[in-house]
Amino acid sequence: MSRPRCERCLRAQDHCLCPLIPHLQSRTRVVVLQHPSERLHALNTARLATLGLVNAELRVGEVFADLDQLLATPGYRPVLLFPGEQAQALVGYAQEGCELPFMLIVPDGTWRKARKLLYLNPLLGELPRVTLGQVLPSRYRLRKAPEAGALSTLEAVVQGLNVLEAPGCFDQLLRPFEALIEGQIRAMGRETFERNHGGR
């Protein structure tokens, strides 16, 4: 019999992260498009990101039929947070000198599944692409990054918002993520963690 889950954070109720999730305002609209296979992943960082931001939403699926309506939301410039040859490094709104904030579209899934989302939703491929300039090291100590600079979805959102809305800081969003990581380390045992992950 499975343990009862919190309906909000989807964690087992005795490991609910809701008390650690902040309630932060942002100029930037954050929309995470999550591949269905990620929804019940033990470390569902995309959900934590959107729960902690007032101006954010999480959409789960492979094909998003109303994407054209979403991208036409008044008051925002839609951009895709995804690497590519034409991708521009994010800079702060104060530096950019533009009054209209971004709608930051963030695909959530493995690189392969994120690319599939772009393939199945051609409108995403037409958006201007943005990336993080200087990437801070990932705090995702339980997983070996597939390449240098790889981040969880939550970390990418936090770093992007910290750049765009400087001097504002969105690091509070990382609190439930860090508690989640620590809980997993405790469950496996510190010694096993040190042996398998080198204490990263």
Structure, explained:
- This protein has about 200 residues and is an alpha/beta fold.
- The chain has one domain (about 25-195).
- Helix content is about 35%, strand content about 15%.
- The chain contains 8 helices and 6 strands.
- It has helices at about 45-50, 65-70, 95, 110-120, 120-125, 155-165, 175-190, 190-195; strands at about 30-35, 55-60, 75-80, 90, 100-110, 130.
- The protein has a 6-stranded parallel sheet with strand order 2-1-5-3-6-4.
- Strand 1 (about 30-35), helix 1 (about 45-50) and strand 2 (about 55-60) form a beta-alpha-beta unit.
- Helix 1 packs parallel to helix 6 (about 155-165) and helix 7 crosses helix 8 (about 190-195).
- It is globular, with a radius of gyration of 17 Å.
- The relative contact order is 0.18.
- The mean pLDDT is about 85.
In short:
GO terms for molecular function: tRNA-uridine aminocarboxypropyltransferase activity. This protein is of the alpha/beta class and 200 residues long.
